[in-house]
TrEMBL record:
Domain of life: Bacteria
One Pfam family named in its UniProt record: Peptidase_M28
Xref: SUPFAM superfamilies: Zn-dependent exopeptidases
Protein's name according to its UniProt entry: M20/M25/M40 family metallo-hydrolase
GO MF terms, alphabetically ordered: aminopeptidase activity; metal ion binding; metalloexopeptidase activity
Record-level GO BP terms: proteolysis
Compositional bias per record (Low complexity), positions renumbered to this chain: 26-38
Length: 581
């Protein structure tokens, strides 16, 4: 995505994905930690994984498709962390790394074990948020009107007669002279807030970054800031355009058990109750309180907006099964021949959303595009490097719990097998479009660093170009694992398939992207399709390889460009490393 506003810097320093408080309650069930693949025999491979395929040492569409078909098969049950699907997935990746001749990448081990806390909300079918207003009570049903959960590791949480306040966007951004909490004591209160940030509608391009989402617009930030302020609960109002995804995506993310890092790894405050309201539910709630939601939402776009208390109180009881478990990053490497202590890192998340027995028909979130494609690309590139002797070490990290808030990469960055000041760059691959060949590759965060210049050089040789994010309002920069590397100062490249298609141009590419978002993203319909044309995605996989190859066989260190908020972080990290020499 294009350059993020410098106004985001303080928010980035505070940024943390939502997590549960493991010290608040003892585990309610035995650990569901998957056995470590390095010490336990793997489960029998499903039939699809046993089908014979003769892999080549090169990057080919046939090999890519073979990996993808296995990773996204029904037998892998949606690759939910902490399940049999995890064991099948991580063992498959390890076996492929071994076949290729890679070495274990985590100090002699194939896995990096990531502690996790799972919160499974019970009684969803009958769960309701009760809102008392003017002597009456309005009930909001789970799944249709709202979704909800606790971000603390507590089996039982109750919200009782909590005053409801409309707090605009729920943003406190002193650099932008914006504070929705000004003069507001939110302790014990339930906040209703808007999704995205005040600049998203483009009415005032000087607000934040205009249409381009800042971190203040991310749903994770809303919960973090409200917890810091002492709120008891937060409900974000879903609207498809500013959220950039439909209610179905929100629902699917809250009906299955939610995973987080334990407090020992992420001690930031957490909300007792967090959730979303549908737009229609918000309109109904506000109307019962004598207010017009849409009118207040427009007022919240204007600088100086003050929070509006509603004549309403929220009540809900949450009962959850709390399970402490382990999940695994899988890490392989090709050791550098001349500078083995300097590492180029490729990342792709292996996890997805598992399955939902409440769904009618197909219940598995296969995640073929998201992110079977990234893992297939990781394996293909690893196989290519395994045949070579790069000067620098090349690391291949298949990380866990991206879908739960980038938790696997967050843990990797906090416990890096190679020091961050010796990590040359991260090249992240997530949800690679399979739409046919394009004239471009879209760079998320374009303008941030010199890695995009390296990519541009690679593409130029193939008659292609880089392009900026076509949908900056969707906040893609904050939604994948490269963001954790960037926050730590490591130059990170996040580039996906472009939209300027060789056949059909930009209109066809945008139509394909919109179709995926509407009809397959985070839905059981994201499945492998035998009719897919892999020509375009393989061009992109080759480009990822070539960028890494240039970095792995040079003495150059990519940098953040002037104006990037990550530049100072990197300079400080490198300076600290130099002092230790």
């Amino acid at each position: 995505m294009r350059r993020i506003a410098l106004a985001c810097l303080s928010a980035l320093a505070l940024a943390a994905c939502h997590s549960h408080d493991e010290d608040k309650a003892a585990p309610a069930a035995a650990s569901t930690a998957p056995a470590r693949p390095s010490t336990a025999p793997p489960p029998p491979l499903p039939a699809v994984a046993n089908e014979k395929h003769d892999f080549t040492p090169d990057i080919t569409a046939g090999d890519f498709a073979a990996h993808l078909r296995v990773i996204s098969s029904d037998e892998y049950d949606g690759r939910k962390p902490g399940t049999l699907g995890e064991r099948l997935t991580t063992n498959y990746i390890i076996e492929q790394f071994k076949r290729m001749g890679l070495s274990p990448g985590n100090k002699g081990d194939w896995v990096q074990t990531v502690p996790a806390v799972s919160t499974e909300l019970t009684g969803q079918d009958s769960l309701k948020l009760d809102v008392s207003e003017g002597g009456g009570t309005e009930a909001f049903a789970f799944g249709t009107d709202m979704v909800v959960g606790t971000l603390q590791a507590k089996s039982d949480v109750e919200l009782k007669d909590s005053d409801i306040v409309f707090a605009g966007y729920g943003v406190n951004a002193p650099e932008a002279q914006w504070n929705d909490f000004d003069g507001l004591d939110v302790k014990g209160k339930t906040l209703v807030v808007l999704v995205n940030d005040p600049g998203w509608n483009g009415n005032d391009p000087t607000l934040f970054k205009g249409r381009e989402m800042t971190y203040y617009g991310r749903w994770t930030y809303k919960y973090e800031e409200a917890a810091r302020q002492g709120a008891a609960a937060v409900f974000i109002v879903h609207q498809t355009e500013p959220a950039a995804y439909g209610w179905n995506v929100v629902r699917s993310g809250w009906t299955t058990p939610r995973l987080d890092l334990p407090e020992s790894e992420d001690p930031a405050p957490r909300l007792p109750v967090a959730g979303w309201l549908s737009h229609e539910a918000a309109q109904r709630l506000f109307a019962k309180a004598g207010k017009n939601f849409d009118d207040l939402a427009k007022q919240a776009d204007v600088r100086g907006f003050k929070a509006v208390p509603l004549d309403a109180k929220a009540n809900i009881q949450l009962h959850s099964n709390i399970t402490h478990s382990l999940s695994n990053n899988v890490i392989g490497m090709v050791k550098g021949s001349e500078k083995p202590d300097e590492a180029v890192v490729y990342t792709a998340h292996w996890d997805h959303l598992g399955h939902d027995p409440a769904l009618k028909g197909h219940q598995i979130y296969n995640g073929a595009v998201d992110n079977g494609t990234g893992i297939a690309a990781l394996l293909e590139i690893a196989g290519k490097f395994a045949q070579e002797k790069p000067k620098r070490t090349v690391v291949f990290a298949a990380v866990t719990m991206e879908e739960s808030g980038l938790l696997g990469s967050k843990y990797y960055v906090a416990h890096p097998p190679f020091p961050l000041n010796k990590t040359v760059a991260d090249i992240n691959m997530d949800a690679l479009p399979i739409i046919g060949p394009t004239k471009d590759m879209e760079v998320t965060g374009m303008g941030q660093g010199t890695l995009e210049d390296t990519l541009a050089e690679v593409l130029k040789a193939d008659g292609r170009v880089i392009s900026g994010d076509a949908s900056p309002e969707k906040g893609h920069y904050f939604r994948s694992d490269h963001f954790n590397f960037a926050k730590a100062g490591v130059p990170a490249l996040a580039a996906g398939g472009g939209i300027d298609m060789v056949t059909g141009g930009k209109a066809a590419g945008q139509a394909a992207a919109d179709d995926y978002t509407k009809n397959r993203y985070h839905q059981p319909t994201d499945v492998y399709d035998m009719r897919w044309d892999f020509t375009g995605v393989m061009q992109n996989v080759q480009a990822y390889y070539q960028v890494g190859d240039k970095l792995a066989n040079s003495d150059e260190w990519p940098t953040w460009k002037d104006g990037s908020e990550f530049k100072a972080i990197r300079e400080k990290s490198l300076a600290a490393g130099n002092k230790k020499k």
